[in-house]
Amino acid sequence: MYDLHDLVQMKKPHACGTNKWEIIRLGADIKIKCTGCGHIVMMSRRDFEKRLKKVLGHVE
Which terminus of the chain has a lower count of CB atoms within 10 Å, N or C? Predict the structure, then answer.
């Protein structure tokens, strides 16, 4: 699955062109941060799991 500070790839790319996001909050809602422009998005866990393509790894 996924954990805090994991890099994930979503199905659709962000407007800045990057498709990698870092998970910065876990709970009923999940907050992710774009690795390209730094934009932060918060969505429900259900929406996140529906839009998730794959887990890329852990941020050091």
Answer: C
Rg (CA), the chain: 10
Output the six-digit token pair for 31: 């907050």
Cα(60)–Cα(57) distance, rounded to whole angstroms? 9
Phi then psi for residue 50, to 5 deg, are -75, -35
What's phi and psi for 13, nearest 5 deg?
Answer: -70, 160
Q: Yes or no: say if 27 and 2 are a contact pair by the CB < 8 Å rule.
A: no
Spell out the alpha helix ranges (H) of 1-60. 45-51
Q: In order along the chain (60 residues), what is the average pLDDT of each group of 10 residues?
A: 95 94 96 96 96 91
Q: Is 50 helix (H, G, I), strand (E, B) or coil?
A: helix
Which two three-digit tokens encode residue 14? 């962000």
